[in-house]
Specification:
heterodimer; A: TIM Barrel; two-stranded antiparallel sheet; 15 helices; 33% helix; B: alpha/beta; Pectate Lyase C-like; eleven-stranded mixed sheet
Chain lengths: 448, 225
């Protein structure tokens, strides 16, 4: 493009390449200078088709709404009804996802337990084992069974209210974890049977089983050790949701946990987070289809996660067929992570509130993703628990508001017919008709 | 001696019965007949009892064992004594993959051979193998001791942390960051005790020691494989 220049001949206006954008160029320069890929926490930051691309239709001539905040709209959910003697009963369908002690401080784990217990829901351990802070303050605690088996022991296994066998997670399906040496305090090192200060690698695959046939036997072992009392979840990343869900059911899961690529991690390669896996919107209906094909929908419960932020998101997950959701990143923000009150310190770390994701470095100004005693002291677990409870209550009230508007007296009565999609992508992924039409790409019996 | 017919009474009844044994139980000796390769036999035990399995077992026999002594008078399937915390497990025959995986403590003795990934991710367990072990054994082994009286397969000790590996025979290849190390007097002392505990008459002086070069302990791109 030529431009008129009053002081000389016409000149070309500088054009920034869409392909070689400033952030891409900066990353090339960083890679060239350091020779190492970028490691960070959190989930995918790229813009993805998401729950914001769906809308509820609400009541109309053919739907009868329920009255505001007065008429009953149940939010309870029971998880683990297939085989466990003691299924988990939750007051709300929003659970706290697995986050490790090590990645998070002890007081942060305590706050998650306090907030979840007040709200009537469960928390989940994470890599690194079970801490007293979390067990002591969580009325319902799910114990993760991970490839690393850090801190795994039968006594803690029997203290759990459920066991979650982690096959993968949304931020890095097929990848292991990292906990860099900066966060390996004496206590973390002792729980993981490793020297203090070294980088700890969490394995990408389980050490003693390969494939769903082996997993079925592994689950038999876990049930025998725990007397068939507690539910066993299988957690998978959003990779091949139809087949992964089918195989999880075949392996004997009571509950399938499905985590999309927006789901966070404590630390892994940025290239992994942004380029492997599928957004949760594309996964839910496929997982539900697998359960329906096996006649297991609602018999094996489905928990979905990866970018759940609001009660509207919760309601949309329910409408797509999930039984419950899990939140991780949102729970940390409720506790105070990335709060603008620490902006000066985020600036010193070369970032800004809302963008801070170097959780693995252990310098979290909010004192949540750290093992530094001085930083940890900034965080009050009682106040954190109160804030988390408030947030969970608001999410639940929002979801109920939408469900009542759709005429539903339980969140689980929401259905795909209550939704429309704003974009072709969301319509195709969620199998929800594009707004103003009765059609979505790939709808059986149609062509496009 | 209590005798339990697994074929007649079933796995759930077996484990429930063994779990019911308290620290001060009088029923300290158990014999399990007709195991017929069943999975998850005698898992999650936590009492000072002796369990003799008269035959071969399937997956995860004696998994997560605490305090108990479990003797398998046959061969063991994958994951025998996985995540063991304490006690003793003895396999008279061979052991399949992942023997002693992630074990935190106790002693696992395999009088025959062990297959691949023996001692994978071990976290304090002591393993004595009278015969050979397969490939990728002691992968990411964190602590404890692995004694091999025969040969070791490919990629021994890949990504090893602080576990000690003692091999009398040949090692087909070493894994990433695993190196041969000097056998000092304190190691001979440890090995002597392990061989005695493992009911093995091999001479400690015939073994070589392997362990971590520690180049992967803090991430350095120049050390990546």
């Amino acid at each position: 493009m030529k431009d008129n220049n009053q002081d000389g001949p016409p000149r070309t206006t500088p054009i920034q390449s869409a392909t070689f954008s400033n952030p891409i160029n900066a990353e090339i320069r960083r890679a060239a200078a350091t020779g190492i890929y970028d490691i960070r926490g959190g989930g995918a930051k790229r813009k993805l088709p998401h729950f914001d691309d769906l809308l509820f239709l609400g009541a109309s001539m053919s739907r009868y709404p329920l009255e505001g905040y007065r008429e009953k709209c149940d939010t309870s959910v029971t998880l683990g009804t297939r085989f466990a003697k003691n299924p988990i009963h939750l007051d709300i369908p929003v659970t706290i996802a697995g986050m490790s002690f090590g990645a998070l401080s002890g007081p942060a784990k305590e706050a998650l337990g306090r907030g979840a217990t007040l709200a009537g829901t469960s928390t989940t351990t994470g890599d690194g084992g079970m801490t007293q802070e979390e067990r002591g303050h969580s009325n319902k605690l799910v114990y993760q069974y991970l490839p690393s088996r850090y801190g795994m022991n039968p006594n803690d296994l029997r203290k759990a209210d459920a066991i979650e066998v982690v096959v993968g997670q949304g931020a890095k399906p097929g990848g292991g974890g990292m906990l860099l040496g900066q966060k390996i305090s004496d206590r973390v090192a002792e729980m993981r049977n490793l020297p203090k200060g070294i980088d700890q690698r969490s394995a990408c695959r389980h050490p003693d089983w390969t494939g769903p046939d082996d997993l079925e036997i592994k689950i038999l072992e876990l049930r025998e050790i725990t007397g068939w009392k507690v539910p066993i979840y299988i957690k998978v990343g959003g990779a091949r949701p139809y087949f992964d869900t089918t195989l999880a059911v075949k392996a004997g899961a009571d509950v399938v946990v499905l985590d999309g690529m927006q789901g966070g991690t404590a630390a892994t390669q940025d290239v992994f987070i942004e380029h492997v896996g599928q957004p949760i919107l594309a996964c839910i209906r496929e997982a539900v289809r697998a359960l329906q094909d096996l006649d297991m929908h609602r018999e094996v419960q489905l928990i979905v996660s990866g970018g759940v932020r609001t009660g509207a998101d919760v309601a949309k997950c329910m409408a797509l067929g999930a039984d419950a959701v899990a939140i991780g990143t949102a729970a940390l923000i409720a506790l105070g992570d990335n709060d603008p009150r620490w902006e000066d310190e985020y600036q010193k770390l070369g970032t800004t509130a809302g963008a801070y994701d170097d959780w693995h470095e252990g310098q979290d100004p909010a004192g949540i993703t750290t093992q530094d005693p001085e930083l940890m002291a900034r965080f009050d677990p009682i106040e954190g628990g109160r804030r988390l409870n408030n947030y969970l209550k608001v999410m639940t009230l929002e979801a109920q508001t939408i469900a009542r508007a759709c005429g539903k007296n339980h969140l689980h009565n929401l259905e795909p017919e209550d939704l429309c999609a704003l974009t072709m992508e969301a319509a195709a992924m969620a199998k929800i008709p594009l707004a103003g039409t009765d059609w979505y790409p790939g709808k059986p019996g149609t062509s496009y | 001696m209590q005798t339990f017919d697994l074929e007649a009474e079933g796995l759930r009844a077996l484990n429930e019965t063994l779990h019911a044994q308290a620290d001060n139980t009088n029923q300290t000796k158990w014999e399990i007949v007709n195991p017929r390769g069943s999975h998850a036999i005698a898992v999650g035990l936590d009492a000072p009892i002796e369990v003799n399995v008269k035959g071969s077992t399937g997956y995860y026999c004696a998994g997560m064992n605490q305090q108990a002594t479990v003797n398998v008078h046959g061969s063991a399937g994958p994951g025998v004594a996985e995540n063991m915390m304490s006690g003793t497990v003895v396999i008279e025959g061979d052991a399949s993959q992942y023997a002693g995986a992630t074990g935190h403590g106790g002693t696992l003795v395999i009088k025959g051979n062990a297959s691949s990934r023996c001692g994978i991710s071990m976290k304090g367990i002591d393993i004595v193998v009278h015969g050979n072990i397969g490939h990728m054994s002691a992968f990411m082994a964190q602590s404890g001791n692995l004694v091999v009286c025969g040969d070791a397969g490919d990629a021994l000790g890949d990504s090893i942390y602080e576990a000690r590996l003692f091999v009398r025979g040949s090692v087909k290849s070493l894994g990433a960051d695993c190196i041969e190390k000097e056998m000092r007097p304190e190691h001979l002392e440890i090995l002597t005790e392990l061989l005695e505990r493992g009911d093995c008459d091999a001479k400690p002086e015939e073994f070589k020691r392997y362990g971590s070069a520690r180049t992967l302990y803090n991430f350095n791109i120049d050390n990546a494989y």
